[in-house]
Amino acid sequence: MPTDLHHFYHADAAPGARCTLAQDDARHAGKALRLKNGAPVNVTDGHGHVFRAEIHFTDRHEAELIVGMPADHVSPVSPLSLAIAPTKNADRLEWCIEKAVELGVNEIWLLHCDHSEKTTARIERLDRLALAALKQSRGTHLPVIRGPFSLEAVLRESDAVHRFIAHCSSHRERKELEALTSVTGKVLVLIGPEGDFSMREIDRAEELGAAGISLGPRRLRTETAAMAVAAIFGLSSIS
Q1: What's the confidence (pLDDT) of residue 61?
Q2: Domain CATH for 127
Q3: What is the DSSP annotation of 144-210?
Q4: Contact between residue 167 and residue 211 where contact means Cβ atoms under 8 Å apart
Q5: Which of 50, 70, 90 is the last residue of a domain?
Q6: Are both 229 and 112 inside the same structural domain?
Q7: What's the pLDDT tens digit per position in 181-229?
């Protein structure tokens, strides 16, 4: 995928489609990027497909993409799904979502846990931040953000082949973070709240097939732990 072409998103992108851009994107294309009628661009549908397109302005604040053939490059889908407990500070969760999308995380679940200080999240705002991060990073996979759900509900609903719960209980059996790099197939990693998962939750996760995992000797914040996991996958599969 040529990196010199500007990158847009439209859910309906497909060969032959005419896709109307959102007004913010149209204004940005005309004013900030200074694109002209007929300028070549790339557009992704958020599901891993990238297409050549031309941009055409129909008004000062309106534009459409005339979509052509698929681009030469198709990025691989990341195998990683993250389940994250919302942080007490909403800004930290928003930062985490943004960086997870930049690193190519495929799916994001929000958790409410026994020790959670916050059990709600503004999903619509998180979706907007995820979309902005996708376009900024030239990504091709827009993750679905779901929840918040209980740990048990996520483990029952997820179709991940491999499940891990990152917790701080050193007296429990835990694999090292590097173990994630040797598995094949979809992976789900659960990241707990500021107070960590409860013993009840760890027990239940293990009963449902999740293996304990250590992120190292330091106690990491929720958003830092999520980024440590995302980086393991993202640096090799980022699109």
Answers
A1: 81
A2: 3.40.1280.10
A3: EEEEEE-HHHHHHH---SEEEEE---TTS--EEGGGGGG--S-EEEEE--TT---HHHHHHHHHTTP
A4: no
A5: 70
A6: yes
A7: 778 889 999 999 988 999 999 999 999 999 999 988 888 999 999 999 9
Q: Which residue, among 146, 68, 64, has the nearest Cα to 105 in the 3D structure?
A: 146
CA–CA gap between residue 224 and residue 92 (Å, rounded): 9
- Strands 39-44 and 7-9 come out as parallel
Give pLDDT, residue 74. Answer: 62
| pLDDT tops 60 at residue 239 | no
Contact 15, 70 (CB under 8 A): yes
pTM over 0.85: yes
Closest CA to 51 of 8, 93, 89, 21: 8
- What range defines the domain where residue 63 resides? 7-70
Positive/negative CA dihedral, 45, 50, 51, 55: positive
Strand pairing partners for 39?
A: 55
Burial label, 97 (beta-carbon count in 10 A; 0-12, 13-18, 19+): buried
Q: Read off φ and ψ for residue 126, nearest 5 degrees.
A: -60, -40
Structure tokens at 141: 């996979």
Buried b / exposed e along 161-189 (16+ C-beta atoms within 10 A):
ebbbbbbbeeeeebeebeebeeeeebbbb
Query: Please, are residues 94 and 124 in contact by the beta-carbon 8 Å criterion?
Result: no
Q: Note whether 50 and 88 are same-domain residues.
A: no
CATH of the domain at 61: 2.40.240.20
* pLDDT tens digits, one per residue of 106-122: 999 999 999 999 888 99
Does residue 188 sit in the same domain as residue 151? yes
